[in-house]
Structures are given as structure tokens and as C-alpha cells.
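Title: Prediction job returns without error message
Component: structure pipeline
Severity: low
Priority: P3
Assignee: unassigned

Description:
Job completed but the reporter wants confirmation the result is attached to the right record. Sequence as submitted:
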Amino acid sequence: MAASLYLVAGKATDAVTHGFLPAAARLGLDTTLLTDRPAAHAGTHGGPVVECDVTDFREIIAAIGGEPAAIFSNSDFLQAPAALAAAYFGLPAKDWRAAARAKNKALMRRHLASLDPVFSADAHQVPADAPYPLVLKPREGVASEDVFLVQNAVELATRRDEIAAHRDDPLVAEEYLPGRLHTLETLGDGRELRVLGSFRTTLSPPPFFVEERLEWTAPPPETPQILEQLEALGVGFGACHTEFVVHEGRARIIEVNYRLIGDHCDFLLADLLGVPLFEEILNVHLGGPLQSWRTPDRRHAIAEPVIADRSGKLTAAPGPLQMDDGPVRLAYRPQRSVGDTVAVTRTNRDYLGTVRAIGPEADEVNAALARFRAAHDWTIA
């Protein structure tokens, strides 16, 4: 009898639809999808889809029948409830406290205060002597949504009111951390935490924080500082995507996303490593050890989103593509479909799709990427 995997999901994502569900099938798992949005997953999964309130670990537990082999989620919002449900069944899982710290930016700053003190306050209780500029953001936000750099108390109040007009969850105001932005991609099995690699991230001009380009690079020399902070948070199991800055020899965490990197960089990472990454992640949740694999040959890689520059209807755009341009392998996966209405938000939600390019040298990769973008049209009417 096949082992049972319960995959806990909210909205439908490419990581789940094209990554983890096919990986579970290749592993021969009997997979049940638990979600509060079953319509969004219609047609993406050939097995059972069970509707339940996946934000509540008690509802996840109640929806599980028999003896599960693993309970897994790749959602930012669902790490803690999935971890609590897994703990109930005695299954390998992330520490739910670490998942809560990673998701809640105020808890994260409080927990790391002895290692890396960063000014952080409830956005409605910022003192007059706060160290402006500050970054205003939802306490448990994602995708750079409603994240703004504010220079003074007047800007803070103005942006806070703008956000309050369409959402009512808590906001925090944090000290702006200067430096070069990097990511750290890790995978742990509870015994070993392995660094998979790092991307160098290019952001849009302030006051917004849209990720415009991610470039594969060696982890910076300051990476051990980040690993120490992750250990303090209790992060060490499964996949984790950490964003941090390096400035004058000091590495400081921006945020911890206790799941696999998104926006199609997950597929790029799997291609770069040359390993079945989605299966590897599921394997540790099944109780297996990290597998050994060879460090990939020196290669250059870029993930570059195509970003909407205006609101309107998407009338022309390529579909999924894979092609070679000399020694460079290119792939494109859309995030919006022709006919979709696009509203520019100045966040990562403005992505129309992402181009991934892997090649031996930076110049070749950049040139192939430029040719690909010039040869295709993305039209917003």
C-alpha cells in the first residue's frame, strides 16, 4: 500500500501544481490535497481534494484519515498549522514555533534581538525618535505587497492610511537595513542543514521593493552570520528561503520564508543543482536523510520576471517555452494568461511571467536573455 502524503495548500501555485504534486506521483505517494480553495485546484490533481480550514491545525488533523506518512505545505501562511498537525501524528516536521517566528516579523525581530538588534515597532506606535528611514510592511505579508520606504512620520502616516483602506492586518515599521541584497537557499533533514546556494537580488527604485532580477552567485563570505541567526530562530528542517543584506562585513536578515523559494526560482534552482529538488524536499518530510549530490559545475543563471508597466488587459504574451540559444538554456513560464486584467501594484504581483536562463558565462546568459525578451511581445491594452 502506498504511503499517504497530505499536502496542505491555500491558493494554487506553480510550485505545488508543477513541482510538488508531480514529485509526489514520481515517489509513488498516495497524495491528498487539503485546501480551503478547492475550486482553485480543480484539474491540477488527480487524487482526492478535501476542503477544510487549513489555517487551523485542528481542522487539518480532523480531515486526515488513517495513518499519514507525511504532512507538508509550501505556503508561507500554512507552515505553523501544518507543523502542528504533523506533530500531532508524530511525523517529521518543522518546529511550529520556528515557523511562527519566521512568519511573524515582529516575533522574528524580538527573537533575534540579542544577535542582531533591529528597530521594529507596531506601525501605529512608532516613537518620535525612530531611526528614519523606516520600512513599513504587513507583519505577516508576502510578495513585497504594501511594503514602502518612508522618510518621516508624515510619510509613515500617509502610507499607513493607504494600506488601511484595503487591508486590516497588523503593520510593522522596521529600521531600513542598507546593503547588497542576497538570498540563502537551504534544506535540512533535522540533522544536517545544507546550503543549496544563493541569489543576488536587484530591486526596483524606492519607495517600492519589487524584485526585478535574481542572479545565481556564490553565497557571500558573511553567510555564517545568517546561519547562526537561522539556528537561533530554530530553522533547520525542510526548505527555507532567507533574504538578507550585507553591508560593511555585516549580514542582516530582512525576512525568513520557511519554504522553498518562489516565483519560478524554485525550478531554476532544481535545474542548476541537477537534482530532483521537489522530491528531495518531500523525502525529508517522509523522514529520509538528505541525499548526497555533486556540486554543479560553475554556471551562471538568472531569473528575470517580465513586469507589467501599466494596468489593463493582457492581449499578447507567450505561453510556456523551453529553448536553447547556443550554450544557454532558456525557459519561460507565464504567471498571467492572455485575457487577464492586470492592475499594477508595484509588487511582485505585477509579474507577467519569468524567464530563466542557465549558461556557462554571465555575458552569454545576459545576451541570450536579452534576445529572448526582444523576440517576444507582452502587450497590455
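Comment from assignee: result matches the submitted record. Residues 94 and 237 are 5 Å apart (CA to CA).
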